[in-house]
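Each field is set out underneath.
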Amino acid sequence: MIARAGRPAVVPPSLARLRLRLTVWYAATFFAILALLGGGMFAAITRRFDNELDASLRDASRELVREASIEVASGRPDEAVEIARILRIPERRLYLTDTAGRSLTAVPVDDWLRRLAARASRADSASATHVIGDRILRAHAQRFELGPGRMAVALASGDEVELEDRYTALIVAFTAAALVSVILVAGGGYLLARKSTAPVEQAIEHMRRFMADAAHELRTPLTVMRSRAEVALSRPREAESYVAALQSVERETIHLARIVDDLLTLARADAGQRPIQRSRVFLDDVMLDAADAARAIAAPKSVEIQVVAFEEAPVAGDPQLLRQLVMILLDNAVKFTGPNGVVRAGVALVDAAPTLTVSDTGIGIGTDQLPHVFERFYRGDSARSRDAGRDGVGLGLSIAQWIVEAHGGSIRMDSRAGQGTRVVVQFPPVASSLPVSSS
């Protein structure tokens, strides 16, 4: 498979709907919070309105009682009655009634105020609220002595709208700020939803591409096997022909099994189902063992494998996975190195970090291809694809990268077209307290 051109990611409809739902939920939740906050704020302000108005009405009625009492004490009870008409308190209406609620002045008294005066005459003082249309009126009444043996009631009333008008600007400002906040939260929520679903979108795109590539790679050996079997069965043949057909099917089966094994390894790695059995492993011993096994692969191609550095380097890791890592790197180097080429491998401690290096004198990789070499099913340009032949499908380096990262290490590849390739793997230093692997 050759390099794939970059394609813009298509957002699945289900993911787009999820983003929209998340945005709506963000905005709705924030709006609900603002509504609760606004309702609580309105209730608190209203309560404050009522308390302030009640206190003001009590003060007004006391002032009326005080002024009337002064006149009574001066021996002028008739003047005390006139006080209710003369006394002026801003935004308050004053009344003076008898204990039955009848006006003692020419000022008419509404029925609800008469009832309030009657209640106050029995309980010294009383308050009441009265609604007329869209107006809310509140009043306070207080009983007092208007001369010897004569009781009267002083009333003061006011309109709640008078106080609420003072806070209209505050309510309007809060409402405007709430609307702007909801709009901003909706916009921010959409951006947050996009950011939150980006990993999911990438995972879906990665899975879709992975499945398409896997299907492509599996289809080729299956097609070859079916074609060989159909040709062999199309007419009677000599035994040697059947043997050749079966051998071809066997080769494709081995190739197919290798692909399936690699896919299963990556699937288990992605699912976290491949546990890492950590022990103290000497990377130099693993490299020597793998290099000896890789010489059997390199010999038919007349490629020489040289061990150029050999330093004791303990690693905390899984012996089987580390050997698989080295074999992948050596096999990859041999695969892209021509006859009479050289593959060099070495292990050394670089700043106390165990470091594995594998280099070759092969065809190399273009600088534009290097960022993609660890992608699954990636085999670079057509030249590298031809050299790889039927020996690989571009999963080896992906597995190698997973092994390195699972061990907390790093892997880097340097290469230029026609100048060979160099892979450097570095692992963190290992604690001496770990048990030494026996494998």
Notes: The mean pLDDT is 80. The first strand starts at residue 93 and ends at 97.
